[in-house]
């Protein structure tokens, strides 16, 4: 049976040209918009998803607009890369062009169960000589069963929309064809109809090759490394003798290799042959081994060989040009950059916070394998792989970043890095994207509260149970060393290793409602889920037993009496005579703003008043709110949630909005904070210290002018003909030292000191 990756040739689509292969796209960062062309391998029997495959790889495309696409159609699809429970998708698939039925249709790749992994995800595969573990009938509706090959089991997902639903489960050895999908940690085979499941018939001859005990599919690459001899096991899955009549070596360094492959392999048996390697030079030594045999459809059997030369390193690569990095996406929470490839096998991207005045120091060491999050010099690894895209995780707002791209060749342990001048770039993320969102909102009006509520509600409701994919995978995850990631408990500051797929139960984490679920007038509102239960502005990751449960629905306040429980930065104790929970300092302002948002957003809905519980002091929350202003992480997170829900948290955008609301009874409040104090509380400048560009904002207010003075009181810059929510002033020509900036708003002026390094 055909199992060659090479047999899935670039599909004859005639007039089509490929901007990017599916294999290239699979190496790009999540969230990028991409365009691919390939042949569709399923129809409407699997619902609104279509699996697309070209000669390099496969990928899933999701979208209701694909309902007219049929199996066998050649399409060009454009969509956003998204990972749903481990499965890489174009979701949504924004647009597509249907070119009609493809001339050449993909054949299922015949593989053993252990080979069903990430490199084949999205492709049409076939398992032979397996048995169903279960008996009887397939369950009605969506279900999962298993097949067994004598040593390994594998999940088979039966979609309730197929004609397999409810039919009898075949007994005895079978062959099964399907799409290779993934759900969380488990890969799964998804058959399309009853025709994909049929009685297994043993072939006359069927070649399979193992090296080091692992299957090597025809067309695969095997890393010889520096080994002088390698044992190749030729297996025959058929019932008749398999004749192996020789081996041919070709390619740039074929003379470095030799192999005698003249053997007869009996039915259902195996024979060993030897591959010899004597490098004739330095660097990568590449060749192709073609094993001639009388298998009907795998003659010759192709193995690409990767040997390492006498210097124990791969061939020296070439770094991308130093100015070749361009950035296509920049938001307060995300950066996407691309660089020009140089023909190297892979690239390593470093990044650090800061600007070009403190460049990246250090470089990767030859023969060393690095993973995302590893530290090199004063920077961290953002990406390692064949792709030419940069998408670092956990970008925050109002921040400069420096990047460096190093090329390398070679497998683990034999990497050769170009340690000369790498491609470099500096890029800055913007701050709050308020724009005209609050136009028409007047904090001096008695209708301020109702106007604000109407502005932020209704909005798009994202289910509570999708928090894992919407927030955890896409934003909360942070990189650490050795390719690991972590998430942070917002109450305690604990860092928990994030393994994808992430299991709440396994790691003991939960999504905390900062405005407690039991406080909500609509409690219980989780079945069915109501928007207030799902609201992402109010959900944060927490340790279930050490933070979420101790907090429960206790009021959030500073402890001034006995402490009864402590876990890292979070603690339970007494404020006066009542039991309260005090989160770590970094989360106090964030928590207050979550509570203010919820009370404001849902106040008046269905006739309910969302006042705070009697034991929750609004004064404590307002103190936290003003003392712990939104940092760049909170701003970035807020902007990301705003893209999901389509609404904003006003109290992150404007601190003084909280002055005008009495959260104890949800009524308009004449703010007793003086105007000058309000302006000062809301005025921020960043970064501190500054070097290239100084940013300034007075949350929620338009800046109409500014003046900058040095320490001697001399004016060095000014502009009173502007109208901007965030001020950006070039300062690279200023001498280092202490300066003062004064900004003008419709409500008056405010001033702040800053430093230029």
Classification by helices and strands: mainly beta
Count of alpha/pi helices = 11
**Number of structural domains:** 6
The main sheet comes to:
6 strands, antiparallel
Low-confidence stretches: 1-18
Instruction: Look at the structure and give the mean pLDDT.
Output: 91
Task: Give the total of beta strands.
Answer: 48
Strand content: 35-45%
CA radius of gyration is 31 Å
Shape: globular
Question: Helical residue percent?
Answer: 10-25%
**N→C terminal distance:** 68 Å
Q: Explain this structure to me?
A:
The protein is mainly beta and 757 residues long. The protein folds into six domains: 80 residues, OB fold (Dihydrolipoamide Acetyltransferase, E2P) (Beta Barrel); 91 residues, Nucleic acid-binding proteins (OB fold (Dihydrolipoamide Acetyltransferase, E2P)), CATH 2.40.50.140; 102 residues, Immunoglobulin-like; 98 residues, Sandwich (Immunoglobulin-like), CATH 2.60.40.10; 221 residues, no CATH class; 80 residues, Macroglobulin (MG2) domain (Immunoglobulin-like). It has eleven helices and 48 strands. Strands 25, 26, 27, 29, 30 and 31 form a six-stranded antiparallel beta sheet that branches. It has a five-stranded mixed barrel with strand order 1-2-3-5-4. Strands 7-8-9-11-10 form a five-stranded mixed β-barrel. Helix 3 runs antiparallel to helix 9 and helix 7 crosses helix 8. The protein is globular and about 95 Å long. The N terminus is likely disordered.
């Amino acid at each position: 049976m055909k199992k060659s990756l090479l047999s899935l040739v670039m599909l004859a689509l005639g007039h089509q040209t490929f901007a990017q292969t599916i294999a290239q796209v699979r190496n790009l960062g999540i969230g990028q918009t991409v365009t691919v062309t390939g042949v569709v391998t399923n129809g409407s029997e699997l619902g609104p998803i279509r699996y697309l495959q070209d000669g390099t790889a496969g990928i899933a495309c999701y979208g209701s607009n694909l309902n007219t696409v049929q199996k066998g159609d050649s399409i060009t699809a454009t969509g956003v890369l998204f990972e749903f429970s481990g499965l890489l998708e174009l979701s949504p698939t924004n647009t597509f062009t249907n070119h009609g039925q493809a001339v050449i249709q993909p054949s299922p790749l015949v593989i053993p169960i252990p080979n069903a992994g990430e490199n084949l995800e999205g492709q049409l595969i076939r398992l032979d000589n397996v048995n169903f573990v279960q008996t009887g009938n397939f369950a009605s509706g969506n279900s999962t069963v298993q097949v067994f090959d004598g040593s390994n089991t594998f999940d088979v997902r039966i979609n309730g929309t197929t004609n397999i639903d409810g039919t009898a489960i075949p007994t005895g050895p079978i062959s099964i064809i399907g799409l290779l999908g993934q759900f969380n940690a488990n890969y799964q085979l998804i058959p399309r109809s009853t025709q994909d499941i049929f009685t297994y018939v043993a072939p006359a001859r069927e070649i399979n090759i193992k090296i080091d005990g692992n299957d090597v599919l025809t067309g695969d690459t095997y890393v010889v490394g520096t080994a002088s001899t390698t044992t190749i096991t030729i297996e025959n899955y058929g019932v008749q003798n398999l004749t192996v009549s020789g081996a041919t070596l070709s390619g740039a360094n074929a003379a470095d290799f030799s192999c005698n492959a003249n053997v007869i392999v009996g039915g259902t048996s195996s024979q060993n042959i030897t591959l010899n390697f004597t490098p004739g030079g330095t660097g990568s030594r590449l060749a192709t081994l073609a094993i001639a045999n009388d298998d009907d459809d795998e003659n010759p059997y192709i193995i690409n060989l990767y040997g390492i030369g006498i210097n124990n390193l791969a061939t020296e690569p070439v770094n991308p040009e130093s100015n070749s990095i361009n950035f296509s996406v920049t938001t307060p929470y995300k950066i996407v950059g691309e660089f020009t490839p140089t023909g190297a096998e892979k690239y390593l991207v470093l990044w650090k916070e800061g600007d070009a005045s403190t460049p990246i120091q250090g470089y990767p060491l030859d023969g060393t394998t690095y993973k995302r999050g590893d530290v090199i010099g004063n920077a961290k690894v953002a990406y390692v792989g064949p792709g030419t895209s940069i998408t670092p995780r956990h970008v925050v707002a109002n921040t400069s970043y420096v990047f460096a791209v190093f090329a390398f060749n070679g497998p683990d342990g034999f990497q050769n890095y170009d340690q000369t001048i790498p491609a470099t770039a500096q890029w800055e993320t913007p701050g709050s994207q308020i724009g005209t969102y609050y136009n028409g909102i007047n904090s001096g009006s008695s209708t301020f509260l109702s106007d604000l509520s109407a502005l932020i509600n209704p909005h798009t409701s994202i289910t509570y149970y999708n928090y894992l994919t919407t927030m955890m995978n896409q934003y909360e995850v942070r990189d650490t060393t050795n390719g690991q990631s972590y998430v942070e408990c917002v109450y305690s500051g604990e860092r928990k290793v994030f393994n994808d797929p992430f299991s709440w139960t396994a790691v003991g984490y939960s999504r905390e409602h900062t405005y407690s679920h039991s406080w909500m007038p609509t409690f219980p509102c989780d079945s069915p889920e109501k928007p207030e239960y799902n609201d992402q502005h109010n959900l944060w990751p927490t340790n279930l037993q050490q933070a979420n449960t101790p907090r429960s629905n206790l009021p959030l306040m500073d402890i001034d009496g006995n402490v009864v429980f402590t876990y890292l930065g979070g603690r339970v104790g007494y404020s006066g005579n009542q039991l309260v929970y005090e989160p770590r300092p970094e989360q106090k302002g964030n928590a207050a703003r979550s509570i203010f948002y919820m009370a404001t957003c849902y106040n008046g809905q269905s006739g309910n008043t969302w006042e705070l519980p009697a034991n929750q002091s609004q004064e404590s929350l307002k103190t936290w709110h003003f003392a712990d202003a939104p940092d760049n992480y909170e701003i970035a997170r807020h902007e990301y949630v705003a893209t999901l829900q389509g609404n904003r948290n006003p109290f992150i955008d404007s601190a003084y909005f909280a002055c005008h609301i009495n959260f104890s009874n949800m009524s308009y409040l004449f703010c007793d904070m003086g105007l000058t104090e309000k302006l000062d509380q809301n005025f921020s400048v960043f970064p501190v210290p500054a070097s290239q560009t100084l940013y300034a904002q007075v949350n929620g207010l338009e800046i109409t002018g500014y003046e900058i003075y040095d320490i001697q009181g001399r004016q060095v810059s000014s502009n009173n003909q502007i109208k901007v929510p965030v001020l950006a002033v070039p300062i690279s020509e200023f001498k280092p030292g202490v300066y003062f900036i004064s900004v003008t708003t419709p409500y008056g002026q405010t001033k702040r000191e800053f430093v230029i390094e």
